[in-house]
Amino acid sequence: MASRRKQQEAFLVEFANLPHDPIAQRCFLDKWEGYIPKEFLADSPLSRLALEMDEKVSREAIASPTSQADMEEYSLAHLNELSYMLRKAWTERTIERRQYFAHEVSRRFARMYFSDPSEHPPRSNFERAMGHFSTILDRTRRCEHANCPLPYYIAPNRKPRKYCELKWKDPTSGELTTCTMVMRKASRLKSWDKHKEKHLAERKSARRKQAQRRHINGKR
After folding, report:
1. Which residues are registered as beta bridge partners of 142?
2. Are residues 126 and 39 in the same domain?
């Protein structure tokens, strides 16, 4: 059970952090085939759902998309939309708003398989992951470090925190670091810059007093 929950959370984190890049999106779909069907890119109900949201598209286009590339484009566009809505569920201020967007992600995903609203799709791994997500909404966080590679994460507890503990390679030093370490270092540098003159004066005064004590001791 615990391992399944960890896998579900790993899927949710990657989905929330999914970039708007077709190559990355296809890699994501390959990796999480157990959660999103292999036929995702060619699934006509999914493409139809995307087309239904665009009032400018004719009924003829909905019935027969111009090409397989068009089908894939519509599918990836809808994947972006689901990822965006998941991020909304991740970061909305109230638990009610988070629950609303989490439910909306599940509802729209279910319509991938059934265009008839009277039909009830079987419970999928995706829906199970979203069901688990609804129980951990008080632990979803967005890292406030502007350069965090994966800003959407799930905290280990409910304790408020600004930065994640994800390890990533610092491009300047090449060493592994975390957003917490980076921001702590930045805070220290900011404090140093603000009080630098005071600190330098204190150090200079301390060295002067130390030199005077050595001088006095030397005369004894």
Report:
1. 152
2. yes
Number of domains in the chain: 2
Give the integer Cα–Cα distance in Å for 40 and 44: 9
Owning domain of residue 133: 2-164
pTM > 0.70: yes
| CA dihedral for 130, 134, 135, 138, sign (positive or negative) | positive
Shared-domain flag, residues 46 and 29: yes
pLDDT in tens, the chain (220 residues): 678 999 999 999 999 999 999 999 989 999 999 998 776 666 545 566 555 655 455 555 555 545 667 677 777 888 898 999 999 999 998 999 999 999 999 888 887 666 555 666 667 899 999 999 999 999 999 998 888 889 999 998 888 888 888 887 877 777 788 888 766 765 565 555 565 566 566 766 777 767 677 766 665 5
Torsion angle, alpha carbons of 124, 128, 130, 136, to 10: -170
Residues 182 and 160 in one domain: no
Q: Specify the amino acid at residue 58.
A: S
